[in-house]
Amino acid sequence: MSPTDFPAPSASKDDLEEGAVFSPRFDANGLVTAVVTDAADSTLLMVAHMNAEALALTLESGVAHYWSRSRGAIWKKGETSGNLQHVVEMRTDCDQDAVWLSVNVAGRDATCHTGRRSCFYRVVEMLDGVASLTTDGSVPRFDPETVYGPKNSA
Amino acid sequence: MSPTDFPAPSASKDDLEEGAVFSPRFDANGLVTAVVTDAADSTLLMVAHMNAEALALTLESGVAHYWSRSRGAIWKKGETSGNLQHVVEMRTDCDQDAVWLSVNVAGRDATCHTGRRSCFYRVVEMLDGVASLTTDGSVPRFDPETVYGPKNSA
Hints:
The first copy, chain A, is an alpha+beta fold. The first copy, chain A, is 14% helix and 32% strand.
């Protein structure tokens, strides 16, 4: 399918919320939010963004593609690291401005660019009135510098 | 805590990704993405957005607050419906532009404004080359018109 195949969102709330037409509501930057969880154990792996092209590529290939806001380019997740995301199921939410991908991760089963399985490895807690971060102890499953090159260039 | 208590994000990628300082990276609209899952069974319930005030209110009260982009106001989720979200754990991701709330939902355990438990009640599937939506069969747990008033006003 072509990215242009997504119809414009209906002005009818009923159509948007209860209908069978997938008409993603892209934001001012042409993006929808994508939430990615592991198909086997529901772990939240990452949050990313998709433009129409990334969405079309994902639906056609069954492998997750995103829009990299930092690089301004289509991003086939795992192309460099081997940790491709095979989509088991895609869902959308009530107002169609977000999608949920349930995936199986290939390679080292590591989604985060730090090498960890999930990007959400730190807990936010109030300590003495200050919001602070505590790691959950998860460790990298690959060496980012080996995979992506020297630090801060990824 | 005050919304102004969140420090500006460090320019150091190491600090941002490995540090103990919570310095949310608000976007151009002053928002971070919030992913909300059920603490008991990990079901993805909704995706929303938080500004600094919503984040501070959530951390202080233990009850999820968001920024309603449609209403342009702080939104104490469940204030009208009774389906308040009690936060069991909050996490942030590697680059601190998203948070993950693991919650227990009060009231009718229904997060979506359509009355359903989750906002993600439709599967996106390719049917004859067209991306189409199929409902997962989940039914409303409350009547939105009774709770929110006449349709299309919520």
